[in-house]
Amino acid sequence: MIDILDIRGDYDIGTARRSITQICSRLGFNEREVGEISIVVTELCTNIIKHNAVDGKVIVTEISEGGRMGIEITVEDKGPGIADVDEVIRDGFSTKGTMGTGLGAVKRLMDSFEIYSNIKDSKYLRYPFEEICAGTVVTVKKWLNCKLDPYNNDIKVSVMSRPYPGFNINGDSYYVKHLNDKEIIAVIDGLGHGNEAHKASTLAARTIEHNYHKNLTEIIFSVNDALKQTRGAAMGIVVIDKFKNEFEYSSIGNIDIRYVSEDRTEIMMPTNGILGSKVNSIKTYKRFYKSGAAVVMCSDGISTRWDIRNYPGILLKNPAILSNTIMRDFGKETDDATVLVAFI
To answer: Which InterPro entries match (predicted)?
Structure first.
């Protein structure tokens, strides 16, 4: 479940804090932990207001990894950005009249903490950057009954997905499956918007779950058969073999799949077509990968103009930093939008 809350004024801070503490209580966090999370939310949201940040948002995601439950909170804005990140995370550093706890205390209270900030300055951006936003993204995690990230040495996945602005139903869906030997990830875009698109994309995700033990071609044909009574969907799917350092992928329709490292991007070859219609053949491809790279999958609600080279160091962060940054800078206001990031 993903909740997105706008932070425009002091009233929104209280609304966000109450909403998030209710989620934490429902998940089973104890009173002390809920109190600590409340402090974190207040500090992060107050920074948005006091620094006059543009388009502040809080994104709350319930997470489950390795049999553990937790909460991931991302606070983002579109500027002005932070010139010296190391300074602001120094314990005790607080400006503009915030609570005084500062980001150093936020880092100490949570199980994981990541921050990424950029300023819109041509001397830092080497590639076309008309759509690049200044701004800051902070992502924190708190695990239930756990002080360590259980996937610290494994493939890490983050998803940011939201409906067409003004709609309550998301026509996009996604799928993530953690297995001992492999990771299966997919982004599905139901044709159009609203209920019918949602039905098609969620049926595709359920069909993958029922067939994940099959090979990739068989999974895709199963999805195609299941969607024949729907309006259809585009789908990108990747199966990552953790032991061979290899992944197999297929993209049917307009799902953008990229393999990215700090200095290069490879766009994975798509196949024309729509699942749920007549599909005679499925093309799958394999490639080896190096540790420290990422697979990024986007529905067509994300502009293809993003370039990883304009975000130096971001692959060293939590994948949620990258997924939320791409959504912030390149999400279209005319479509459902989904970004799935897997650090491999």
So the answer is: HATPase_C_sf, HATPase_dom, PPM-type-like_dom_sf, PPM-type_phosphatase-like_dom, Ptase_RsbX
Establish whether the linkage from the previous residue to 80 is cis, with ω within 30° of 0. Answer: yes
Q: What is the pLDDT of residues 128-186, one digit of tens each?
A: 555 556 789 999 999 998 655 544 557 999 999 999 999 999 999 999 999 999 999 99
Q: What's the start-to-end Cα distance of the chain, in Å?
A: 24
CATH number, domain containing residue 22:
3.30.565.10
* Whole-angstrom distance, CA of residue 296 vs CA of residue 255: 10
pTM of the full predicted structure?
0.86
Q: Per the structure, how many domains does the chain have?
A: 2
C-alpha–C-alpha distance, residues 205 and 184, integer Å: 11
Enter the tokens of residue 263. 């200095």
**CA 66/CA 179 separation, integer angstroms:** 10
- With respect to residue 296, please indicate whether it lies within any of the assigned structural domains: yes
d(C-alpha 285, C-alpha 275), whole Å: 18
* DSSP code of residue 100: S
Last-in-domain residue among 93, 118, 143: 143
Alpha-helix residue ranges (DSSP H) falling in 81-231? 85-88, 102-109, 194-211, 216-226
Instruction: Tell me the backbone φ, ψ of residue 195, rounded to 5 degrees.
Output: -60, -45
Same structural domain, 182 and 279: yes
Both 137 and 163 in one domain: the answer is: no
**Residue after which a domain boundary falls, among 80, 112, 143:** 143
CATH classification of the domain holding 185: 3.60.40.10
Print the domain residue range for 240: 156-343
What span, in angstroms and rounded, lies between the C-alpha atoms of 302 and 310? 16
The answer to whether residues 232 and 276 touch, using CB atoms and an 8 Å cutoff, is: yes
**Assigned token pair, 203:** 């049926």
Residue with tokens 């394999």: 286
Angle at 276 between CA 275 and CA 282, to 5 degrees: 40
